[in-house]
Amino acid sequence: MAKIEPNKRKPNTAPKFNIFWIYGLIALFIVGWGLFNGGGNPLEITWATFKNQIITSGDVQKVEVVNKEVVEVFLKPDKIKDWRENVEFRNIPSSGPQFVFTIGSLDKFEENMETIQMNIPDADRISPIFVKKRSLWTDVWSVFPFLMILLFTVLIFRSMSRGSGGGGGGVFNVGKAKAQMFDKDSKIKVTFKDVAGMEGAKTEIMEIVDFLRNPKKYNDLGGKIPKGALLVGPPGTGKTLLAKAVAGEANVPFFSISGSDFVEMFVGVGASRVRDLFRQAKEKSPCIVFIDEIDAIGRARGKNSGYSSNDERENTLNQLLTEMDGFGTNAGVIILAATNRADILDKALMRAGRFDRQIHVELPDLTERRDIFEVHLQRLKLDPTLDKEFLAKHTPGFSGADIANVCNEAALIAARGDKKQVERQDFLDAIDRIVGGLERRSTIISPPEKRSIAFHEAGHATVSWLLQYANPLIKVTIIPRGRALGAAWYLPDERHITTKEQLLDEMSATLGGRAAEELFLGRISTGALNDLERVTRQAYAMISYFGMSDTLGNISYYDSTGQSDMAFSKPYSDKTAQQIDSEVKELIDLAYERAKSILEEHRTQMEQLAEKLLESEVIFSEDVERILGKRPFNNTPEGVKSTESEVIDAQSEEVIA
C-alpha cells in the first residue's frame, strides 16, 4: 500500500507585491493617453498661412481662441479629405482641431479677423469663440515636483526600515536589534571539525553547547549553566570562527550581532536595541547570543574619549549590564562575546554572573599549526611530497588567519608560474611575501648604498651566529622587499619566558648592523632606524616593566589591566625617570660594544660574508657556516635546514632608507 503523505502547503512562488508596480502603471497610463488620445496633433501654422489660404477658402467650420493665447482652427468634416490631398496639409488629424497657431495680442487678432473678412458676406463670416481649457500635461507637470518629493520620502523611509533590522515601521523601527538569527533550519556549514587547534577553548564551548542540549544532566546535580563566556585573544586566532562553529553545532537558536550595531547617533537607540535583542532571545530560549567586538560598547565607563555628561555608549552598556544580570530573569539565554581588547572592558561586565568564563584563544603552537594547515590545504592541489610538519615548524607566531593567507598566497604564486600543483617553494615564497613584502628588484640602488646595506646585513648575520641565545639565522638578503632595503631572516624559538641573557644577546644581534657600518665603512646611516627603535623599546621594557635593573630593583611600572589613570602622568618621579634613562643607555651601550668586539674579532670573516652578499644578493645559513664555521651553540631547532628550497622568513630585521 502506498504511503499517504500528509498535505503539505505548496510554497508560494508568486512574486511579492512591490509599490513600484503602481508607479509603473501610472507612468504607462500617462504615456498611452498622450500617444493615443485625440487621433493626432493639429498642424502648426503661421498667421500668414491662416490669412491667405485657410480663412479665405470657406472651408472653416469654427475658430476657437484657447486661453487668449492659442488659436485652434476646425475644418468642415466634409472638406478634410480635400485638404489632405495637398502635400503641405496631408498630416492634419481627422478629428479635433486641424490647425493651430499662437497669437501675441487678442485685440490685434480680432482686428485682423475683421480686416481679412471685409469682402466676405456676413453669413459666411467666422467669429472667433473664446474658451478656457486645462491641459492634462500641464496639470501633471505642475504636481510633478510634489510627486517626486513624496517618492523620495517613501524611498528614504523604506531604506531606513531595511537598515533598522526587521519588518515594517519605517523610521520608527530604528530601535530594533539588528541581530541575525540562525536556528536548526538554517544551513550553517561551519562546525567544530572546521576549527583546528584551540582544543581548550573548544572544550569549554562544547560544555555550554552540551548544557543546552542536555540540561537535565547538569540540573540533577544542582549545577547552573554559565550566563556568559568571553572569547579573548589576538586578532586572527579564530574567535569569530569558533562562534560560527557553535551556531553550526548547537540545536538551539543562535543570535549574531556586532557591538558596533548598538551604536547610533540617536539618543537611547543603543539601549533600545539591547532590550529588543534580549526580548527576542527570551522568546526563543534556550538560545545563544553572540556579540562580536564587544569592546565597541563595553569600554570602561568614565574613560571614553568624549566628555559628554550623557554618553550614549555608557547608556548602552548600562542596559547590557542590567539585561545580563539584573532583577529580570534571562533563563536559558547564554551570551558569547569576542574581543581582542579585554583590558579596556568595564569591570562590571567582566565579573562572575555576567561573563562567568574568560576563554583565552591564543596563537597556535606547533601541533595546532599543523592541524590548521590540514584544514586549509584540503582545497589545494598539492605536491604529494609536501611535508605539512615542515610548514608548521617554520611558521612560529602565525595566527590561523595568517596560515590561511599563506595557503592562498602559495596557490596564487603557483598559478602565476603555470604550475599544475602547489609545491614547497611556493609556500616559502608566500611566507616571504607576507612577512617581508613584495620584492622590488626594479628599485635603483647606487653602489655605495648597496655596499652599506650589505655590510649592515652581514653584521646582523655575524653577531647573531656567534651569540648563544640569538635566534638562529636562516637567510640574509639585500634585495629590496616591502619598505626594507635589506633583511635578515631568523627562526625564533617558541618560548613562553625569556631570560635577561637572551634579551641581551638579541639586543647585540640587532645592533650588529649599526656596529658593522661604523667599523667597516667609517660612517653610520639612517638604515638602522628600525633596529634602534626595537632596541630602545626592548631596553625600556627590561628596566621599567620586567624589573631587570640593578639600580631600581624588582619594580614594574607596567599596567596589564589598562584600568589605572596613567594617561596624563608618569607613575614615577622625575628622579626615577632619570635613573630609567640612565639604565637604558647603559644597557644599549653595553650591547653595542659587545657587537663591535665580536665583529672586530672576526673582521676577516665578516668582510668575506659582506662580499659574498654583494655578489649573490642572497645568502643562506650554509654560506654563513662555510665562512664563520659551525655555530658553537647547538640551539638550532630540529628540522631547520640550510638549503635554498627550505628557507623561510619567520622574523625579519628591516633596513629603512
Protein traits:
657 residues; alpha/beta; six-stranded mixed β-sheet; five-stranded mixed β-sheet; 15 strands; disordered N terminus; disordered C terminus
Note down, in words, how this protein is organized.
The protein has 23 helices and 15 strands. A hairpin with a 6-residue loop joins β12 and β13. The N and C termini lie far apart (86 Å). α18 crosses α21 and α19 crosses α21. Strands 6-8-9-10-7-11 form a 6-stranded mixed β-sheet. With 657 residues, the chain is of the alpha/beta class. Helices cover 44% and strands 11% of the residues.
Topology:
Layout: H1 19-36, E1 43-44, H2 47-54, E2 60-66, E3 70-75, H3 80-84, E4 99-102, H4 106-116, E5 129-131, H5 136-163, E6 180-182, H6 199-213, H7 215-219, E7 228-232, H8 239-249, E8 254-258, H9 269-284, E9 287-292, H10 295-298, H11 312-324, E10 333-339, H12 347-350, E11 357-360, H13 366-376, H14 388-393, H15 400-416, H16 424-436, H17 447-466, E12 473-477, E13 484-490, H18 500-510, H19 512-521, H20 529-544, H21 574-601, H22 603-616, E14 618-620, H23 621-628, E15 651-656
Fraction of helical residues: 40-55%
Shape: elongated
Give the strand order of the largest sheet, numbering strands 1, 2, ... along the chain: 6-8-9-10-7-11
Protein structure class: alpha/beta
Largest sheet: 6 strands, mixed
Mean pLDDT: 79
Approximate strand percentage: 5-15%
Distance between the termini: 86 Å
Q: Please, how many helices?
A: 23
Instruction: List low-pLDDT spans.
Output: 1-11, 164-170, 636-657
* Radius of gyration based on Cα positions: 42 Å
DSSP strand tally? 15
